[in-house]
Structure formats: C-alpha cells, structure tokens
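Hypothesis: this fold can be encoded by more than one sequence.
Test: take the structure tokens below, design a sequence, compare later.
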C-alpha cells in the first residue's frame, strides 16, 4: 500500500484527523511516528516529552491532514491527559513484543480511553512493535491478535527500525474514523440522534506543533 505525501492547495482543504499514540515508555512510540512522517529511525529521544506532529498524506486516494500526539507513557489519569484524550479522534495503543509488561499495560490504556470517552466505539489500532527482534520476543503474535479481538480493533506487528507495517497502522486508524463519520451521517439522514463520538474534533491538542513533510 502506498501513501504518498500530499502537497499543494488541495491538501490545505482536506480533513484534519487528531490521532493519539499511547503505550508504555520504551516501546518505540516516537520511532513509529518518526518513521511514518520522515522515513527515518531516531537514534535518541527524550521519553518524558509529549509533542504533536503534523503530516499530509493520501489514504484511499483521499487527502488527510494528520495531527499526531506522541505521549510520554504510563496509563495514569491526569487533567492534561483527560484533555487530549477527549480531543483525540483515534488512538494507537502500542506495546513491544519484547516486553510482556508493556503488553499487559495495553489493556490499561484501553480502559483509560473508555474512562474518558465513555464509549466502546472509539477508533483504536493495536500495535506490537519491535517485530524485528524475534530472538527477544516475549509476546506471541497469537496473544496480540487475541487482545485485538477483545478490543474489536485492527492489529499489526510493526518494526519501526525497518519500517514494517508503519503506514498501514495510520491508514487503518483513519479508515475507522471515516467509517464512524459515514455511519453517523447515515444515522442523521435516517432521523436518528446525532453521534457525540467526534464532538471533540474541534478541541486543539494545545501542544507545540512540528510540521514534518
């Protein structure tokens, strides 16, 4: 699947999607984002920093502006986390296949999403990163698939180091958001109550922005 970077005036009019990367420290959240945006693997990153990144792509021949928040880990409830959990429209829950604790924590992040948003219908993708380190594997592919079935979400094993399945993760998440919006639009046409799922789309992340193209 090819996801060429967008440019030009048409991209400025495209829909913006607010995505949030969740997961324990050390699982490679920042590396996944940097590989996606700039096709490079970061050699170092301050794990305490939360920051937002922007990029323009095309998914299914439709432009999309992505605003991606990279979080600092720990599934703890704070006022700031509450704010960006409400603002986010889709969430990537990541763990490392070499760290069983990070896999166990993935369920805590899913519960945190529900605690803030009060719906099980929030778009989510589960990611098992560091798939290139098979000799250090602590979490099987079957376990990852099983957790994804529990979450009722797509699942990918990725390698940020070698850029395996990185684009597919973000495309799958945007497709979920688009599907939810289409379902909500159909519901309105049929006279149903409007969905409140994406009401937070207009809330900014309030983070320093870094444009990466």
């Amino acid at each position: 699947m090819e996801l060429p970077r967008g440019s030009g005036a048409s991209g400025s009019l495209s829909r913006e999607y607010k995505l949030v990367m969740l997961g324990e420290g050390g699982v490679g959240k920042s590396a996944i984002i940097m590989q996606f945006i700039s096709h490079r693997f970061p050699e170092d990153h301050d794990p305490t920093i939360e920051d937002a990144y922007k990029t323009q792509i095309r998914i299914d021949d439709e432009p999309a502006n992505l605003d991606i928040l990279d979080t600092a880990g720990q599934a703890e409830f704070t006022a700031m986390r509450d704010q960006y959990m409400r603002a986010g429209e889709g969430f990537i829950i990541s763990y490392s296949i070499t760290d069983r604790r990070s896999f166990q924590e993935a369920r805590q992040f899913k519960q945190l999403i529900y605690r803030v948003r009060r719906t099980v219908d929030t778009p989510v993708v589960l990611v098992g990163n560091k798939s290139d380190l098979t000799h250090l594997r602590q979490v099987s592919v079957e376990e990852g698939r099983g957790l994804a079935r529990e979450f009722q979400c797509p699942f990918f094993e990725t390698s940020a180091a070698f850029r395996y399945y990185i684009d597919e993760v973000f495309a799958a998440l945007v497709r979920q958001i688009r599907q939810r919006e289409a379902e909500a639009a159909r519901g309105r046409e049929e006279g149903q109550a409007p969905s409140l799922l994406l009401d937070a789309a207009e809330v900014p992340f309030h983070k320093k922005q870094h444009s990466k193209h």
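The radius of gyration is 17 Å. The first helix runs from residue 9 to 12.
Hypothesis status: open.
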